[in-house]
Design the sequence.
């Protein structure tokens, strides 16, 4: 898990809360390194047991059932960010045509897809 989070942090992905990955690295080392030999059965305080169960079971379940109410971090959900709505803007000097000619892809560039639906004038971004 440490290597996994170091890899995510080292790639500098866009729209990703990297502090979460750093927190996970330190948390893994603290919980499973320093206190790795302490069994869960040593918990005796009922309040502490309730907090651990709420934080580890109830919050993730509630967050996945009601994602608009609970953040993706405590809900342990995948973060999709705004990747599905992002797009690249190109100069009008033929960059899009070069991509269409020289790149194997499942669909044409966005402006060509929009041209089919709305016409060239509306599809072009100024």
Sequence:
């Amino acid at each position: 898990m440490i290597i996994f989070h170091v890899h995510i942090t080292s790639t500098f992905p866009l729209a990703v809360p990297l502090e979460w990955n750093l927190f996970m690295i330190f948390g893994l080392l603290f919980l499973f390194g320093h206190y790795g030999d302490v069994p869960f059965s040593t918990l005796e305080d009922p309040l502490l047991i309730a907090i651990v169960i709420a934080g580890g079971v109830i919050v993730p379940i509630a967050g996945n059932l009601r994602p608009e109410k609970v953040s993706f971090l405590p809900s342990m959900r995948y973060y999709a960010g705004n990747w599905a709505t992002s797009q690249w803007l190109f100069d009008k000097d033929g960059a899009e045509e070069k991509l269409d000619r020289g790149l194997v892809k499942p669909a044409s560039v966005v402006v060509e897809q929009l041209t089919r639906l709305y016409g060239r004038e509306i599809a072009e971004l100024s």
